[in-house]
Amino acid sequence: MSTESKTIILRCTTVNRKRKTIDIQASAKLIKCSQVLRDVCEYTEPDSPVTVPIEASTLTRLMRFVDESPEKRDKVQEAKVFAIMEDQELFAFAKAADYLDIEQLRVAIGDYMIDKFGNMTATQIGEYLGVQNDYTEEERLEMVTNPSMFYMKQDPGY
């Protein structure tokens, strides 16, 4: 079934003290760009709002970004939009794009971050992303001297 004739209401929350839920109608272009929303259209008949773990202002901004994006990517315009966002807002935007599986937006944010990290060291990138380096001196030495053995011993956690 065509996604263009479908209506999806997304239920999200606000971040204020009252923490209320808000229903937002997904635009046709957002549905078209989101693999998750296309799957909802194809495999279900949503007769009630679909709850998403995305804050309302992030969802609204993401939908506006998708709706206003030209068919052909404009990296300069994308970078301008991302540059005015606070770091936490950009991270929330990226998380929402990932959750909704919006490939074009994940690529755009990835390209922006690669450009942003261009002159940073690995330590600076880790600090920016809030990654804690909790390896011991022995582990760091093994990473350098025998990386294949070091990484083969690691538990992938899944």
Write a brief caption for the model.
This protein is mainly alpha-helical and 158 residues long. The protein is 56% helix and 10% strand. A hairpin with a 7-residue loop joins β1 (9-13) and β2.
Describe this structure in words.
With 158 residues, the protein is mostly helical. The chain has a single domain, classed as Potassium Channel Kv1.1, Chain A. Helices cover 56% and strands 10% of the residues. It contains 9 helices and 3 strands; from the N terminus they run ββααβααααααα. It has helices at 28-33, 35-43, 56-68, 75-83, 87-99, 103-117, 122-129, 137-145, 147-152; strands at residues 9-13, 21-25, 50-55. It has a 3-stranded mixed sheet with strand order 2-1-3. A hairpin with a 7-residue loop joins strand 1 and strand 2. Helix 3 packs across helix 5 (87-99), helix 4 (75-83) crosses helix 6 (103-117) and helix 5 runs antiparallel to helix 6. The model has no long low-confidence stretch (mean pLDDT 88).
List the helices and strands and how they pair.
Blueprint: E1 9-13, E2 21-25, H1 28-33, H2 35-43, E3 50-55, H3 56-68, H4 75-83, H5 87-99, H6 103-117, H7 122-129, H8 137-145, H9 147-152
Parallel strand pairs: 1-3
Antiparallel strand pairs: 1-2
Helix pairs in contact: 3-5, 4-6, 5-6
Low-confidence runs of at least 5 consecutive residues? none
CATH C-level category: Alpha Beta
On the 0-100 scale, what is the average pLDDT? 88
Count helical runs: 9
Radius of gyration: 20 Å
The rough form would be described as elongated
Can you tell me the CATH architecture?
2-Layer Sandwich
- Please outline the major beta sheet: 3 strands, mixed
CATH-assigned homologous superfamily? Potassium Channel Kv1.1, Chain A
Ends distance: 36 Å
CATH-assigned fold name:
Potassium Channel Kv1.1, Chain A
What is the tally of beta strands?
A: 3
Protein name: SKP1-like protein
InterPro entries: SKP1-like_dim_sf, SKP1/BTB/POZ_sf
